[in-house]
Write a structure and sequence with these properties.
heterodimer, A: alpha+beta, 6 helices, 4 strands, globular, B: alpha+beta, Beta-Lactamase, 2 domains, three-stranded antiparallel beta sheet, 3 helices, about 40% helix
């Protein structure tokens, strides 16, 4: 019986606290577009003081925001270490890195389209479902390559890739090369001599492969070292498109589709 | 010097460093009379922990030791007349943190064999001279 008043006092304190918190939340509600009532219930997630997590932000807002390069380097280093477990050889390791990047490319594609589309034609958002609007999705190989070379690279690394080439050999017309002189993912990585064939940018190759597949271009992408005196980390991404893509390319060329 | 010589030097230096740390003179601390009779000792400046060997100087060269907070020691051999050694040390530490610790192929406690580290350090040193 003697404990009861104290208990009730505690109860009242806790309720008044939650009231305060609610009032604070209510006060900030009008200033933000997306209301997040469930966030306060998750104690593990740290919420910024203005109660806007990265998830509440507009997709276009974080376009120019930069991430910490060091944290990415450590994360990628751990990814490589993780992929290195239980692998039999260098090719297996590259394949694993490729597979890690592939889903990222598939998912990134929508964000990429969303951003390139809204920056060029911001009003076409509602009418994008109709086919009359200018095609934002690349239909031919060259627009796709330009999409990878320019917007995708800018989205990932804040700059364009350094070169885009078509294979000169007549036997392999389905091969294209994208060159990056100093890939961001390899900045802090030095591959030991006995694994000199390995290029950890296979992860980026996986992203490109995901983007190509997401666009409907079946392709195999691999990363190769091509160091020069000036650029010791120069990497060439070799895109090998499938036969079906090349056949379709011929049909589209005859039809005059760009 | 071969890799083995470096390892021997590092091992020897580590021991000497540990000894020089422990022989730092201490002064007795006046203990409160109520406590037990054992007197405790402290370093002259209690805020600063005892450092071990920092310089080793001969007629021809100077060996500078820089210990990071994690206990890694960098040994630098320079001319005795070289100045700004701490600047070089700081840069070596920075490059080590960047190109060695962020390299997934480097195993802790193993000799540093990172091409990017060597390349950047060499480039930086060449830029200084």
């Amino acid at each position: 019986m003697s404990q009861h008043p104290r208990h009730s006092a505690m109860l009242s304190i806790s309720t008044s606290n939650s009231n305060l918190a609610n009032a604070g939340a209510d006060k900030q509600q009008p200033s933000q577009n997306v209301s997040t009532p469930t966030q306060s219930s998750s104690p593990g997630l740290r919420v910024p003081s203005n109660r806007k997590t990265i998830y509440d932000r507009h997709l276009n807002r974080s376009r120019t925001a930069e991430l910490s390069r060091a944290s990415f380097a450590f994360l990628f280093s751990e990814m490589v270490t993780y992929a290195q477990r239980r692998v039999t050889g260098i090719q297996d390791l590259e394949k694993r890195l490729n597979e890690q990047g592939y889903p990222l490319g598939l998912r990134l594609l929508d964000l990429l389209f969303y951003r390139t589309m809204s920056s060029s034609t911001s009003s076409s958002l509602s009418s994008s479902s109709t086919s009359s609007s200018p095609p934002n999705r690349p239909l031919r190989i060259l627009p796709l390559l330009h999409l990878i070379h320019g917007p995708l690279w800018r989205l990932l690394f804040q700059r364009s890739a350094d070169a885009l080439e078509h294979s000169v050999s007549p036997e392999t017309p389905n091969e294209y090369m994208i060159t990056d002189n100093d890939p961001l993912v390899n900045t802090y990585i030095s591959v030991p001599r006995e694994m000199s064939m390995l290029n950890c940018a296979a992860f980026v190759a996986g992203i490109i492969e995901g983007v190509c597949d997401g666009c409907g271009f079946e392709a195999k992408v691999s990363a190769h070292n091509q160091p020069t005196e000036m650029w010791p980390g120069r990497t060439v991404f070799l895109l090998r498109f499938g036969d079906s893509v090349m056949e379709r390319e011929k049909v589209l060329e005859r039809a005059g589709v760009r | 010097m071969s890799t083995n010589d470096y390892l021997v030097l590092a091992g020897t230096f580590h021991g000497v460093h540990a000894i020089t740390r422990t022989i730092t003179p201490r002064i007795p601390v006046p203990s409160p009379p109520s406590s037990t009779s054992t007197t405790s000792y402290a370093f002259p400046n209690p805020g600063i922990p005892a450092t071990g060997l920092e310089y080793l100087e001969t007629e021809k060269f100077r060996l500078t030791c820089f210990q990071t907070l994690t206990g890694t020691k960098f040994l630098l051999f320079t001319d005795p007349l070289t100045t700004n050694i701490d600047v070089v040390m700081r840069k070596v530490y920075e490059l080590y943190a960047d190109y060695v610790m962020k390299n997934p192929f480097y195993q802790l406690e193993m000799p540093v064999r990172c091409e990017a580290f060597d390349r950047h350090l060499g480039g930086w040193l060449r830029g200084r001279t």
